[in-house]
Amino acid sequence: MSQRRAEPLAQVSDFEIRLLRVFRAVVECGGFSAAESALGIGRSAISQQMSDLEQRLGLRLCQRGRAGFALTEEGQEVYQASLQLLAALEGFRSEVNSLHQHLRGELNIGLTDNLVTIQYMRISNALSQLKEQGPDVQINIRMSPPDEVEQGVLDGRLQVGVVPQTAPLSGLDYQALYGERSLLYCAVGHPLFYVDDRKLSDARLDEQEAIAPTFRLPADVQAHYQRLNCTASASDREGMAFLILTGRYIGYLPDHYAESWVQQGRLRALKAESRFYDLQLASVTRKGRRPNLVLECFLQALAATAEPVTA
Protein backbone atom coordinates (compact mmCIF):
# COMPACT_ATOMS: atom_id res chain seq x y z
CA MET A 1 0.00 0.00 0.00
CA SER A 2 1.07 3.54 -0.64
CA GLN A 3 2.59 5.58 2.19
CA ARG A 4 0.53 8.77 1.95
CA ARG A 5 2.13 11.98 3.14
CA ALA A 6 0.14 14.07 5.60
CA GLU A 7 1.27 17.23 3.77
CA PRO A 8 2.31 18.01 0.16
CA LEU A 9 6.00 18.01 -0.69
CA ALA A 10 7.14 21.55 0.17
CA GLN A 11 10.34 21.62 -1.84
CA VAL A 12 12.89 19.40 -3.50
CA SER A 13 16.22 19.57 -1.69
CA ASP A 14 19.67 18.65 -2.97
CA PHE A 15 19.47 15.45 -0.94
CA GLU A 16 16.20 14.44 -2.59
CA ILE A 17 17.69 15.14 -6.02
CA ARG A 18 20.55 12.78 -5.19
CA LEU A 19 18.01 10.13 -4.13
CA LEU A 20 16.10 10.62 -7.38
CA ARG A 21 19.31 10.00 -9.33
CA VAL A 22 19.74 6.72 -7.45
CA PHE A 23 16.10 5.87 -8.18
CA ARG A 24 16.56 6.54 -11.89
CA ALA A 25 19.65 4.31 -12.01
CA VAL A 26 17.79 1.48 -10.22
CA VAL A 27 14.88 1.69 -12.64
CA GLU A 28 17.09 1.83 -15.73
CA CYS A 29 19.31 -1.02 -14.51
CA GLY A 30 16.27 -3.14 -13.58
CA GLY A 31 16.92 -3.63 -9.89
CA PHE A 32 19.13 -3.03 -6.88
CA SER A 33 21.80 -5.61 -7.63
CA ALA A 34 22.18 -4.52 -11.24
CA ALA A 35 22.54 -0.89 -10.14
CA GLU A 36 25.48 -1.56 -7.82
CA SER A 37 28.16 -1.23 -10.51
CA ALA A 38 26.46 1.76 -12.14
CA LEU A 39 26.24 3.66 -8.85
CA GLY A 40 29.45 2.37 -7.29
CA ILE A 41 27.74 1.55 -3.98
CA GLY A 42 26.51 -1.66 -2.38
CA ARG A 43 23.02 -3.09 -2.48
CA SER A 44 22.34 -2.31 1.18
CA ALA A 45 23.18 1.36 0.64
CA ILE A 46 20.94 1.48 -2.43
CA SER A 47 18.11 -0.14 -0.47
CA GLN A 48 18.51 2.40 2.33
CA GLN A 49 18.46 5.35 -0.06
CA MET A 50 15.37 4.00 -1.81
CA SER A 51 13.66 3.71 1.56
CA ASP A 52 14.66 7.28 2.38
CA LEU A 53 13.18 8.50 -0.89
CA GLU A 54 9.89 6.65 -0.34
CA GLN A 55 9.67 8.07 3.16
CA ARG A 56 10.32 11.61 1.97
CA LEU A 57 7.78 11.34 -0.85
CA GLY A 58 5.26 9.37 1.20
CA LEU A 59 4.87 6.91 -1.69
CA ARG A 60 5.66 3.26 -2.32
CA LEU A 61 7.79 3.36 -5.46
CA CYS A 62 8.67 -0.28 -6.13
CA GLN A 63 8.17 -3.86 -5.18
CA ARG A 64 11.24 -5.81 -4.22
CA GLY A 65 11.71 -9.30 -2.93
CA ARG A 66 11.73 -12.86 -4.25
CA ALA A 67 9.37 -11.91 -7.03
CA GLY A 68 11.97 -9.43 -8.33
CA PHE A 69 12.01 -5.71 -8.84
CA ALA A 70 8.97 -3.89 -10.22
CA LEU A 71 7.70 -0.32 -10.15
CA THR A 72 4.36 0.53 -8.63
CA GLU A 73 1.98 2.75 -10.60
CA GLU A 74 3.05 5.69 -8.46
CA GLY A 75 6.67 4.66 -8.98
CA GLN A 76 6.13 4.87 -12.73
CA GLU A 77 4.76 8.40 -12.40
CA VAL A 78 7.58 9.48 -10.06
CA TYR A 79 10.12 8.01 -12.50
CA GLN A 80 8.69 10.03 -15.40
CA ALA A 81 8.56 13.19 -13.26
CA SER A 82 12.15 12.63 -12.11
CA LEU A 83 13.32 12.37 -15.73
CA GLN A 84 11.76 15.78 -16.44
CA LEU A 85 13.33 17.30 -13.32
CA LEU A 86 16.82 15.92 -13.96
CA ALA A 87 16.63 16.95 -17.61
CA ALA A 88 15.67 20.48 -16.57
CA LEU A 89 18.63 20.62 -14.17
CA GLU A 90 20.98 19.45 -16.90
CA GLY A 91 19.52 22.01 -19.28
CA PHE A 92 20.14 24.74 -16.69
CA ARG A 93 23.73 23.60 -16.23
CA SER A 94 24.35 23.55 -19.97
CA GLU A 95 22.79 26.99 -20.44
CA VAL A 96 24.96 28.54 -17.70
CA ASN A 97 28.08 26.91 -19.11
CA SER A 98 27.23 28.20 -22.59
CA LEU A 99 27.39 31.75 -21.24
CA HIS A 100 31.13 31.21 -20.82
CA GLN A 101 31.42 30.16 -24.43
CA HIS A 102 29.04 32.66 -26.05
CA LEU A 103 29.66 36.12 -24.66
CA ARG A 104 26.88 38.67 -24.68
CA GLY A 105 26.71 42.30 -23.65
CA GLU A 106 28.79 45.45 -24.16
CA LEU A 107 32.37 46.56 -23.71
CA ASN A 108 32.68 50.30 -23.05
CA ILE A 109 36.33 51.26 -23.43
CA GLY A 110 37.96 54.67 -23.18
CA LEU A 111 41.21 55.42 -25.02
CA THR A 112 43.49 58.39 -24.94
CA ASP A 113 44.23 59.74 -28.40
CA ASN A 114 46.85 58.53 -30.86
CA LEU A 115 47.47 55.01 -29.57
CA VAL A 116 46.67 53.31 -32.85
CA THR A 117 49.97 54.37 -34.44
CA ILE A 118 52.10 52.46 -31.90
CA GLN A 119 53.77 49.75 -33.94
CA TYR A 120 53.47 47.16 -31.18
CA MET A 121 49.99 48.27 -30.09
CA ARG A 122 47.82 45.20 -29.45
CA ILE A 123 44.51 46.74 -28.38
CA SER A 124 43.00 45.96 -31.78
CA ASN A 125 44.20 42.38 -31.49
CA ALA A 126 42.54 42.01 -28.09
CA LEU A 127 39.28 43.51 -29.42
CA SER A 128 39.42 41.09 -32.35
CA GLN A 129 39.85 38.12 -30.00
CA LEU A 130 36.94 39.35 -27.88
CA LYS A 131 34.73 39.62 -30.96
CA GLU A 132 35.75 36.13 -32.04
CA GLN A 133 34.75 34.71 -28.65
CA GLY A 134 31.53 36.70 -28.55
CA PRO A 135 30.18 37.72 -31.97
CA ASP A 136 27.20 39.35 -30.26
CA VAL A 137 29.33 41.58 -28.01
CA GLN A 138 28.86 45.29 -28.78
CA ILE A 139 32.09 47.31 -28.53
CA ASN A 140 31.82 51.04 -27.77
CA ILE A 141 35.02 53.14 -27.91
CA ARG A 142 35.22 56.65 -26.49
CA MET A 143 38.27 58.80 -27.30
CA SER A 144 38.96 61.20 -24.42
CA PRO A 145 41.83 62.93 -22.61
CA PRO A 146 43.43 60.65 -19.97
CA ASP A 147 41.76 62.43 -17.02
CA GLU A 148 38.31 61.92 -18.55
CA VAL A 149 39.04 58.25 -19.26
CA GLU A 150 40.00 57.67 -15.62
CA GLN A 151 36.92 59.54 -14.39
CA GLY A 152 34.71 57.52 -16.74
CA VAL A 153 36.08 54.27 -15.30
CA LEU A 154 35.58 55.56 -11.75
CA ASP A 155 31.94 56.55 -12.26
CA GLY A 156 31.08 53.41 -14.24
CA ARG A 157 30.47 54.97 -17.65
CA LEU A 158 33.49 53.04 -18.91
CA GLN A 159 34.50 49.51 -17.96
CA VAL A 160 38.14 49.88 -18.95
CA GLY A 161 40.50 52.54 -20.27
CA VAL A 162 44.02 52.85 -21.66
CA VAL A 163 45.94 55.93 -20.51
CA PRO A 164 49.46 57.14 -19.81
CA GLN A 165 50.38 55.84 -16.37
CA THR A 166 50.80 58.61 -13.81
CA ALA A 167 50.20 58.79 -10.07
CA PRO A 168 47.46 56.19 -9.52
CA LEU A 169 44.04 57.43 -8.52
CA SER A 170 42.42 55.87 -5.49
CA GLY A 171 39.76 53.40 -6.58
CA LEU A 172 41.48 52.36 -9.81
CA ASP A 173 43.69 49.43 -10.77
CA TYR A 174 46.46 49.94 -13.34
CA GLN A 175 48.13 47.27 -15.46
CA ALA A 176 51.21 48.29 -17.47
CA LEU A 177 50.93 47.60 -21.21
CA TYR A 178 53.44 49.43 -23.40
CA GLY A 179 56.11 52.07 -23.25
CA GLU A 180 56.34 54.99 -25.67
CA ARG A 181 58.97 57.68 -26.23
CA SER A 182 58.14 61.34 -26.83
CA LEU A 183 60.56 63.66 -28.64
CA LEU A 184 60.67 67.44 -28.88
CA TYR A 185 59.51 68.57 -32.34
CA CYS A 186 59.21 71.67 -34.46
CA ALA A 187 57.59 72.03 -37.89
CA VAL A 188 58.81 73.36 -41.20
CA GLY A 189 58.65 77.15 -41.04
CA HIS A 190 59.93 77.27 -37.47
CA PRO A 191 63.25 79.15 -37.03
CA LEU A 192 64.91 76.02 -35.64
CA PHE A 193 63.77 73.61 -38.34
CA TYR A 194 67.03 73.75 -40.32
CA VAL A 195 69.40 74.39 -37.42
CA ASP A 196 71.94 71.59 -36.92
CA ASP A 197 71.56 69.89 -33.53
CA ARG A 198 75.27 70.40 -32.89
CA LYS A 199 74.75 74.17 -33.05
CA LEU A 200 71.51 74.09 -31.05
CA SER A 201 71.94 74.84 -27.37
CA ASP A 202 69.48 73.81 -24.66
CA ALA A 203 69.18 77.45 -23.67
CA ARG A 204 68.01 78.38 -27.17
CA LEU A 205 65.49 75.53 -27.14
CA ASP A 206 64.13 76.56 -23.76
CA GLU A 207 63.40 80.13 -24.89
CA GLN A 208 61.20 79.03 -27.83
CA GLU A 209 57.43 79.27 -27.47
CA ALA A 210 56.21 75.82 -26.51
CA ILE A 211 53.02 73.88 -25.71
CA ALA A 212 52.07 72.43 -22.33
CA PRO A 213 49.59 69.55 -21.91
CA THR A 214 46.68 70.07 -19.53
CA PHE A 215 46.33 66.35 -18.74
CA ARG A 216 48.07 64.67 -15.79
CA LEU A 217 51.64 63.45 -16.26
CA PRO A 218 54.22 61.95 -13.89
CA ALA A 219 56.41 64.41 -12.01
CA ASP A 220 59.55 63.43 -13.93
CA VAL A 221 57.75 64.12 -17.23
CA GLN A 222 56.35 67.44 -16.00
CA ALA A 223 59.93 68.53 -15.39
CA HIS A 224 60.55 68.43 -19.16
CA TYR A 225 57.75 70.95 -19.70
CA GLN A 226 58.70 73.17 -16.77
CA ARG A 227 61.99 74.05 -18.41
CA LEU A 228 60.23 75.13 -21.64
CA ASN A 229 58.69 78.53 -22.36
CA CYS A 230 55.09 77.25 -22.52
CA THR A 231 52.81 79.93 -23.92
CA ALA A 232 50.09 77.59 -25.24
CA SER A 233 48.32 74.50 -23.97
CA ALA A 234 46.37 71.52 -25.33
CA SER A 235 44.11 68.94 -23.73
CA ASP A 236 45.45 66.06 -25.85
CA ARG A 237 48.30 65.07 -28.14
CA GLU A 238 46.36 65.86 -31.31
CA GLY A 239 45.86 69.40 -30.09
CA MET A 240 49.59 69.66 -29.48
CA ALA A 241 50.26 68.41 -33.02
CA PHE A 242 47.96 71.09 -34.45
CA LEU A 243 49.95 73.81 -32.70
CA ILE A 244 53.36 72.40 -33.57
CA LEU A 245 52.37 72.17 -37.24
CA THR A 246 51.72 75.92 -37.29
CA GLY A 247 55.48 76.37 -37.29
CA ARG A 248 55.18 78.73 -34.31
CA TYR A 249 55.73 76.35 -31.40
CA ILE A 250 57.87 73.46 -30.27
CA GLY A 251 56.39 70.58 -28.29
CA TYR A 252 56.64 66.95 -27.33
CA LEU A 253 54.86 64.24 -29.31
CA PRO A 254 55.10 60.44 -29.21
CA ASP A 255 57.61 59.41 -31.89
CA HIS A 256 55.21 56.83 -33.38
CA TYR A 257 52.55 59.54 -33.80
CA ALA A 258 54.91 62.07 -35.35
CA GLU A 259 56.61 59.57 -37.69
CA SER A 260 54.39 60.17 -40.74
CA TRP A 261 54.97 63.96 -40.62
CA VAL A 262 58.70 63.38 -40.17
CA GLN A 263 58.75 61.22 -43.31
CA GLN A 264 56.85 63.94 -45.18
CA GLY A 265 59.46 66.49 -44.16
CA ARG A 266 56.95 68.50 -42.11
CA LEU A 267 58.35 67.78 -38.63
CA ARG A 268 61.80 67.23 -37.20
CA ALA A 269 62.95 66.11 -33.76
CA LEU A 270 65.18 68.53 -31.88
CA LYS A 271 68.23 67.02 -30.13
CA ALA A 272 66.53 63.60 -30.04
CA GLU A 273 69.39 62.00 -28.12
CA SER A 274 68.83 64.18 -25.07
CA ARG A 275 65.43 65.92 -25.33
CA PHE A 276 62.98 63.05 -24.81
CA TYR A 277 60.96 61.31 -22.13
CA ASP A 278 59.53 57.81 -21.80
CA LEU A 279 56.00 57.12 -20.65
CA GLN A 280 54.27 53.89 -19.74
CA LEU A 281 50.75 53.21 -21.02
CA ALA A 282 48.43 51.18 -18.82
CA SER A 283 44.98 49.67 -18.80
CA VAL A 284 42.81 50.97 -15.99
CA THR A 285 39.81 49.35 -14.32
CA ARG A 286 37.79 50.14 -11.21
CA LYS A 287 38.69 48.43 -7.95
CA GLY A 288 35.97 46.22 -6.51
CA ARG A 289 34.16 46.07 -9.84
CA ARG A 290 31.34 43.59 -10.23
CA PRO A 291 32.21 40.42 -12.16
CA ASN A 292 31.76 40.94 -15.89
CA LEU A 293 32.65 38.14 -18.26
CA VAL A 294 32.99 40.38 -21.32
CA LEU A 295 35.45 42.67 -19.53
CA GLU A 296 37.46 39.79 -18.09
CA CYS A 297 37.79 38.16 -21.51
CA PHE A 298 39.03 41.43 -23.01
CA LEU A 299 41.56 41.94 -20.21
CA GLN A 300 42.83 38.39 -20.62
CA ALA A 301 43.21 38.90 -24.36
CA LEU A 302 44.97 42.23 -23.78
CA ALA A 303 47.40 40.69 -21.31
CA ALA A 304 48.11 37.80 -23.69
CA THR A 305 48.80 40.01 -26.71
CA ALA A 306 50.54 42.96 -25.07
CA GLU A 307 54.30 43.26 -25.43
CA PRO A 308 55.61 45.57 -22.70
CA VAL A 309 58.31 47.78 -24.18
CA THR A 310 60.80 49.97 -22.36
CA ALA A 311 62.44 52.53 -24.57
From TrEMBL:
One of its GO terms (molecular function) is transcription cis-regulatory region binding. It comes from the Bacteria. Signal peptide: none annotated. It holds the Pfam family HTH_1. Residues 15-72 form the HTH lysR-type domain. Transmembrane segments: none annotated. SUPFAM superfamilies: Periplasmic binding protein-like II, Winged helix' DNA-binding domain. Keywords: DNA-binding, Transcription, Transcription regulation. InterPro entries: LysR_HTH_N, LysR_subst-bd, WH-like_DNA-bd_sf, WH_DNA-bd_sf. Belongs to the LysR transcriptional regulatory family. This is DNA-binding transcriptional regulator, LysR family. It comes from Atopomonas hussainii. The lineage of its organism: Bacteria, Pseudomonadati, Pseudomonadota, Gammaproteobacteria, Pseudomonadales.
